[in-house]
Amino acid sequence: MKIGFNEGCNRFCQDHSVLKDLEYCEKHGFDYIDIQSECLNRDLEAGKYTLEDLSAWFRDPAHKLKMLSYNALIFFNMKQTQAEKAAVMEELDEIIRRCNMLDCKMIVVIPSMDLPVHATVDEIKADAVAVLKEMVKKVEPHGIKLSIEFCGAPSMSINRFEDAYAIAQAVDSPLVGITLDQYHFHAMASSFEALEKADGSKIFVWHLNGSENMPCGAPYNTDEKRLWPGEPGDCRLSGPPALCRYVEENRV
Question: Residue ranges of the Xylose isomerase-like TIM barrel domain (predicted)?
Answer without folding.
Answer: 23-214
